[in-house]
Amino acid sequence: MSLKLKNYVIWYQYKTRSANTVRELPGKELIDLCKAIITNSKLSEPADTLILKVKLEGETEYNTTLNCDYFEEHCNGDFKRLVEMHKIKRLNPISVTTMENERLRDELATQVNPINVTSQDNQEMQRLRDELAALKITQAQALSKEIHVRYNDQAITFRRSMLEEIGTSNVEDLIELIRPKLRKFIEKVSDIVITLRPGNNEVLGSETPITELYNTEDQALRVVV
After folding, report:
1. What residues form DSSP beta bridges with 155?
2. How far apart are CA 125 and CA 223, in angstroms?
3. What local confidence, expressed as pLDDT, does residue 106 receive?
4. pTM
5. How far is CA 78 from CA 30, 33, 68, 164, 186, in A?
6. What domain count does the chain have?
7. Looking at the domain assignment, is residue 126 inside a domain?
8. Which pLDDT belongs to residue 19?
9. From CA 121, how far away is CA 191, in angstroms rounded?
10. For residue 30, how many other CB atoms are within 10 A of its CB?
């Protein structure tokens, strides 16, 4: 059943094209917005390869990935709430790009002659690697049903269904679930400070949403005490 948007429209911008609007959706799910964008902008990509990002009005960077989890948990699965919460309009549209993993891999594979590689080539190769890594992380977060963490050589896994059932919402909540699992390795674990790091990156903030933490085993968060 199609969904006609009453009293509001959804603005989006595909890559560097001009902002455009969606006024009717083929259904009520987030994938239906992707399908409408594909049709509206006459794209050839499959709907499930679109990457949607949103930002609050006044922000300069699109740092929030609009996936099914975010849509359900923060917008209650309601497009009008999504539009109102982020003040989506022509000057603040949803950013739309595509998963281009294969293209990125191909471009990286062509950079095979280290003798003639210039500084500019190195910068371009690093940009491609960073973009590919970001796409992999985005896909993993959208598809994974688990959060993997690791303390030394000990792996700990939390299932999405369990986290949702007990209302785990951010890093601070997750750390309190990790703490009792460390008792057999650490004395007085209740008194220590525990932080989480994605790889060798900076410490995750305590308010980082749980929806941004879903990952695969090879992306396990490091538990640091």
Report:
1. 150
2. 31
3. 53
4. 0.47
5. 9, 12, 11, 19, 45
6. 2
7. no
8. 92
9. 50
10. 23
For residue 119, being part of any structural domain is answered with no
Give the CATH number of the domain where residue 48 resides: 3.10.20.90
Residue 112 corresponds to which tokens in the numbers above?
């095979």
State both tokens at 208.
């980082």
Instruction: State the residue range of the domain holding 60.
Output: 3-98
Inter-residue contact 52 to 65 (CB < 8 Å): yes
Coil vs helix vs strand at 19: coil
**Cα(191)–Cα(4) distance, integer angstroms:** 55
Buried b (16+ CB within 10 A) or exposed e, 146-171: bbbbebeeeebebebeebeeeebebb
| DSSP annotation string for 55-71 | --TT--S--EE--HHHH
Judge whether 171 lies within some domain: yes
User: Which tokens hold the place of 156?
Assistant: 């700990």
Under-70 pLDDT residues of the chain? 1, 100-122, 129-144
Stated length of the chain: 225
| Cα 214 to Cα 224: distance, rounded to the nearest angstrom | 18
Place of tokens 């209302």: 167
Q: Is residue 120 part of a domain?
A: no
CB 95 within 8 A of CB 53: yes
